[in-house]
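Any chance you'd type out a single protein's sequence alongside its tokenized fold?
>
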Amino acid sequence: MWAHTVGFTVLPHVGGLLGWFINRKGIPVWYEKLKKPSWCPPRKIFPIAWTVLYTGMGYASYLIWNDLGGCSSKAIIPLGLYGAQLVLNWAWPPLFFGARNLKLALIAILCLDGLVIGTMCSWYRINKIATLLMVPYLGWLALATCLTICIWKDNPEQKRGKSE
């Protein structure tokens, strides 16, 4: 049973690492040039935060999967919402850093916020601990959403996608 726990816990990290690997060269150059609010966290904080958040959400998804007896019909909506938000989470860095499309990244993160809230609502009756493990993620997403809005608003020359 430990293999399932590890698998679910590690899964969110896969997309995060892949997104970082694909976008790693453009982040320092392009991102540093953007106008950002004074409350923007230092770049060094992001990998630490995402490691903690991905671990928590991965373990939470395991708890839901386990409580619902695996891949049963009862798991379709709760784990489907989780899977959808995870895919959208993984899609955000290529939109923001890769395509440099601030508007599309903003739309994606707003949709992501809704999916995470939906996921948490669907999980609440199944496992309150799993839902609570998602709270830090939702808080970080709120910060990331506000940051994305500010960057989109304050960098009008970047709104059309890649431009240097």
In short: Residues 106 and 146 are 9 Å apart (CA to CA). The mean pLDDT is 90. The two ends are 50 Å apart (CA to CA). Helices lie at 2-23, 26-33, 45-67, 76-98, 102-124, 128-133, 135-154.
